[in-house]
């Protein structure tokens, strides 16, 4: 299978590394409008084919799939063109910047019987898969609430805010773990650096789900410290996933509190357990999953619909942010 990778920026380099390993350098052609980026790719992968012209990839019938790692605002146009030229598409998050656009991509992929996958990378993270198993088996009990912190100093984006840049990760995890969509969405944000463009540097997103679960995400690229943390509080156990930990990323606390028959509150301080999890690079898992879906005609875990349901939430939260900014 021959692949075209479009966008050789910071993240694109990770995709190039993975697909060159999985497929071999000879099967990959890289496109970027910036010649300097292509020189960097060539210096790291001697012999790799590159082009500044997207049509070189789109018009090549031997290229069966494209991987899109360009800025979010360009995803829709490039993905639509690629699907219309009969190519399977792996697109970075967010799938598009509008619900309507995501719907169009799904429609074309279904009509053409092509694989459309969005890189909701955390759905391929071994710790998230472990958490999903624990929740589905009822080990954590009834889930009360979830919150996550995705903060760091940078990467500051010029054309999308912290909600669109960072939010897809946490939202896709909430939807994957809970298997439901929120019925209440609220958001507040702060614009500090790019005032002229009203781009939020920090966003507090709050989702309420029909099952009663509340989920809250703190998203920011203006923070002193890099934190990638997800906490789940259930009636039986509590879990903390800290992705900055090199090895022991998941901790399960046998802790809780409940009313006792005597009418008082019983607080349980039980054991703390660190499950053994075989850590694999989530991006590698996602890339291999894409290939497998194409070969076996399977629906990706993070297919176009998964991308769409994330965009639905982002679009609603964005409207709320804009209304608040008008006040
Ligand atoms: N899944 C993840 O964990 C993750 C992490 C970081 C970024 N991303 C996503 O990856 C995408 C790229 O992010 P980045 O940080 O690499 O950005 P970047 O700005 O570093 O790279 C984007 C590259 O795309 C190129 N480009 C722009 N328009 C193009 C076009 N029309 N045709 C060809 N090339 C074009 C630019 O020249 C640049 O080299 C974004 O959608 C971002 O949301 C995902």
Tell me about this structure.
- With 327 residues, the chain is of the alpha/beta class.
- The chain has nine helices and 14 strands.
- The protein has helices at residues 10-23, 35-44, 54-58, 75-84, 99-112, 126-136, 162-178, 282-296, 304-326, and strands spanning 2-6, 28-31, 49-51, 63-68, 88-92, 116-119, 143-153, 184-190, 202-208, 214-220, 222-234, 238-242, 250-259, 265-273.
- The strands form two sheets. The chain has an eight-stranded mixed sheet.
- The protein is globular and about 75 Å long.
- The chain starts with a strand and ends with a helix.
- The chain binds nicotinamide-adenine-dinucleotide.
Write a compact overview of the structure shown.
By secondary structure, the protein is an alpha/beta fold. 36% of the residues lie in helices and 29% in strands.
Low-pLDDT segments, ≥5 res = none
Percent range for helical residues? Answer: 25-40%
Order of strands, widest sheet: 8-9-10-7-11-12-13-14
In round numbers, the mean pLDDT is 96
Bound molecules: nicotinamide-adenine-dinucleotide
């Amino acid at each position: 299978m021959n692949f075209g990778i479009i966008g050789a920026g910071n993240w694109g380099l990770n995709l190039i590394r993975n697909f060159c390993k999985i497929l071999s350098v000879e099967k990959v052609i890289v496109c970027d409008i910036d010649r300097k980026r292509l020189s960097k790719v060539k210096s790291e992968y001697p012999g790799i084919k590159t082009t500044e012209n997207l049509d070189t990839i789109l018009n090549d019938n031997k290229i069966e799939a494209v991987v899109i790692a360009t800025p979010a605002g360009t995803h829709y146009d490039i993905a639509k063109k690629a699907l219309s030229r009969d190519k399977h598409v792996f697109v970075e998050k967010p799938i598009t910047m509008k619900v309507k656009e995501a719907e169009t991509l799904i429609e074309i992929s279904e009509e053409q019987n092509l694989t459309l996958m969005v890189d909701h990378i955390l759905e391929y993270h071994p710790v998230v898969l472990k958490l999903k198993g624990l929740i589905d088996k009822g080990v954590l009990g009834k889930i009360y609430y979830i919150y996550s912190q995705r903060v760091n100093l940078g990467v500051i984006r010029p054309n999308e805010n912290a909600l669109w840049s960072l939010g897809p990760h946490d939202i896709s995890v909430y939807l994957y773990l809970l298997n439901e969509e929120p019925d209440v969405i609220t958001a507040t944000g702060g614009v500090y650096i790019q005032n002229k463009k009203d781009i939020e540097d920090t966003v507090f997103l709050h989702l309420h789900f029909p099952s009663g679960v509340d989920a809250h995400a703190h998203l920011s690229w203006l923070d002193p410290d890099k934190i990638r943390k997800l906490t789940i509080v259930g009636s039986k156990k509590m879990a903390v996933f800290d992705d900055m930990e090199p090895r022991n990323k998941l901790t399960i606390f046998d802790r809780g509190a409940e009313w006792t028959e005597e009418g008082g509150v019983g607080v349980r301080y039980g054991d703390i357990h660190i499950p053994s999890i075989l850590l694999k690079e989530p991006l590698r898992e996602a890339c291999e999953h894409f290939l497998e879906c194409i070969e076996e005609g399977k629906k990706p875990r993070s297919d176009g619909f998964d991308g769409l349901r994330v965009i639905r939430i982002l679009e609603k939260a964005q409207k709320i942010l804009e209304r608040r900014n008008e006040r």
